[in-house]
TrEMBL record:
Gene3D superfamilies: 1.20.1280.50, Ribonuclease Inhibitor. This is F-box domain-containing protein. It comes from the Eukaryota. PROSITE patterns: FBOX. Residues 8-61 form the F-box domain. InterPro entries: F-box-like_dom_sf (IPR036047), F-box_AtFBL13-like (IPR053781), F-box_dom (IPR001810), LRR_dom_sf (IPR032675), LRR_FXL15/At3g58940/PEG3-like (IPR055411).
Length: 348
């Protein structure tokens, strides 16, 4: 019977690399519990290359479970849990995710990022914090970064910032950064392949000193009633000669209609999108500048295969019919007549 039990205890005989793969697919709170499975599993989690501290971990039930010291402040328990994991962790950390939206503990976040800066292997960093939290200088020492996703924080580049030379994917969501600093940031990320800017607080750059020659995918939130945002959008597109996909979400912040509409097609007649294959625009159709932008992209994309337009909920049936006539029946230059073109109503 004993021999039979030993032969059936397969979980204790798994190779270490298999154990590590299993742990990387588990929530961190569950990975910590695997130490009780067997001696071989004990502290295997300390070599996990991926650490994720998100909302799933930061629940009162998970923080206080099996903890008799429930009189501790909830925020203190969160910080204690993170520090314990980091202090016991032994191996390299290639991916780190931290989502904290509690203003009570932002002071400790600086210490967490400083600790991570000593690890020279972080390739993917996902961070969400309370609005207005300023990233410390130690963050800019993450020189191995390939994927950076920041939400609801503030960036002020240090004078000695030389960029992230290996960064390929950059996502900013409600990140506060000036247009000048964003220009400097992008210029110093020469290998960038994907760029996403949602609700960029501070504006986008009007010009770039160098082209983003590796950029393949561009995702932006844009208000086409603001001249600066129109210019910045077209600047980014014009400086990305190898774009394959553009996604634009049209936004409206209550601005008044432009008194003098820019002649987009004339001003950017030299635009070339020789590699663009897919265009997607959502919340489209309220302003004339949006239509001019669409026509410009269609006229400059000889390899375009798909153009998907999702209308704004503010577009009436009459306006939609007029739009269809303008796009489908009135002649305007299209570099790729074979492109599949669709106009849809929002599903919600």
């Amino acid at each position: 019977m004993k021999a039979q039990c030993q032969s059936s205890d397969r979980i204790s005989t798994l190779p270490e690399d298999t154990i590590e793969k299993i742990l990387t697919h588990m929530p961190i709170r569950d990975a910590l519990r695997t130490s009780i499975l067997s001696k071989k599993w004990r502290y295997c989690w300390t070599r996990m290359p991926k650490l994720v501290f998100d909302d799933n971990m930061f629940t009162r039930s998970s923080i206080f479970e099996n903890d008799i010291s429930k009189d501790y402040n909830f925020e203190d328990k969160i910080i204690k849990a993170i520090f314990q994991v980091l202090l016991l962790h032994k191996g390299p950390i290639s991916e780190f995710c931290l989502c904290i939206v509690d203003a009570e503990i932002v002071n400790e976040i600086d210490m967490i990022i400083l600790h991570l800066s000593w690890n020279k292997n972080i390739k993917k960093f996902i961070f969400e914090c309370v609005e207005g939290y300023k990233l410390p200088c130690s963050f800019f020492s993450f020189q191995e970064l390939e994927h950076l996703d920041l939400r609801c924080c503030k960036i002020e580049l240090p004078h000695m910032f030389n960029g992230f030379s290996k960064l390929k994917i950059l996502k900013f969501d409600a990140v506060e950064i000036t247009a000048k600093m964003l220009q400097r940031f992008l210029t110093n990320c020469p290998l960038l392949e994907e760029l996403t800017l949602h609700f960029a607080a501070g504006g986008m750059p009007w010009k770039l000193p160098t082209s983003l020659i590796h950029l393949r995918r561009l995702v932006l939130d844009v208000c086409f009633l603001i001249q600066d945002e129109i210019s910045s959008t077209l600047c980014l597109i014009n400086n990305s000669p190898n774009l394959e996909k553009i996604q634009i979400n049209m936004i409206y912040n209550g601005e008044k209609t432009l008194a003098n509409l820019p002649d987009i097609q004339e001003d950017y007649s030299g635009l070339n999108l020789d590699h663009l294959k897919e265009l997607e625009i959502t919340r489209f159709g309220i302003f004339a500048t949006e239509m001019e932008f669409l026509k410009l992209i269609m006229a400059k994309s000889p390899l375009l295969k798909k153009a998907r337009i999702e209308l704004s909920i503010l577009v009436t049936v009459g306006e939609e019919n007029k739009m269809l006539r303008d796009l489908l029946f009135l002649p305007f230059p299209r570099a790729s007549p074979a492109a599949k073109f669709s106009i849809e109503r929002p599903k919600y």
